[in-house]
Design goal:
This protein has a single domain, classed as Alpha/Beta hydrolase fold, catalytic domain (Rossmann fold, 3-Layer(aba) Sandwich). Helices cover 32% and strands 18% of the residues. The strands form 2 sheets. Strands 1, 2, 3, 4, 7, 8, 9 and 10 form an 8-stranded mixed β-sheet that branches. Strands 5-6 form a two-stranded antiparallel ribbon. The chain has 8 helices and 10 strands. By secondary structure, it is an alpha/beta fold. The chain is globular.
Length: 319
Amino acid sequence: MSTMPMYFPQDFALGTAVECAELVNCAYDQYTQWYDQDYPDMSGFSWVPSISGYDFGSALYWTYSWLGTSYQEPIGFVAWSDDTAYVVFRGTVSKIDWLYDAKTDLVAYAQTSGFGNVHEGFSEIYAQLSPQVLAGVGEANQAVTLTNVIFTGHSLGSGLSSLAVPDVVANAGLAASVSYLHLNLASPRVGDPTYAAAMNASAVPSFRVVNTEDIVPCAPLAVGIANDYEHIGTPINFTANCGAIDGNHSLTLSYLYALNNPQSPQNPSPPVTLLEASIGPAPIGGISDGQVGGGATFAAALIAARGPVSSVAKSFPGR
């Protein structure tokens, strides 16, 4: 089965998009390492980045309580190479992640003025991440004197990177000459039309890589009973139907494959497994949005549908 080649506008850098997708995959691996270490606090978390050629700051994390126990869950990082910093976020993995995905009321953007209203769940997570992101960008700037900052993420991580853009531009204290780029994969809608207009009017170009067969970029609905949402930036579309909701949303199976094969973005290999996943207090089985065969847990949060499954030995609101 073949599909149409991808089309790229003149100012879209395919190599940078591939690099961003690989860095996001590194953020998914960061979560896996934390999970395999029995989810320690960050002071006890030993993270070995799965990609070379960059310097890395500390893991970005947020804190929540699940069944009476507090967890510090890693969700990304700031890395730098040469004169460029990368602000990177993974997508939905744990159950608490998708519970926040489903908090779709709109609240005022909190980090600077003039950016309207944004997704409540993303905003609550990013409120904890903001000081860490600014510190990480500052560390990178001290190390290499930045001339470029790139923001990227997949799924939930696209929402977080979208919130990071105006925060870093307004509050990181970087030189006025620094250039910015925002490149997301499988981004849901993040804010209302006022937020979208402010992002589109800013000096930061935003690109959204979108599989037309992926349901996550369709959420939240543009027009709702109480909340109106609008996408930001320039869409970079491709069509690849992997035969499953989770496959169409997968970072590696769908998005990274397409970017590496833009003339024929349809992955000929279907998802290895499909599964039944409950939406309840028990752990969700399977692997993350980012991995081959991994589940679209963001999608599960929105539609109470299916995702991938594998055995889970630990009693944790995870994969």
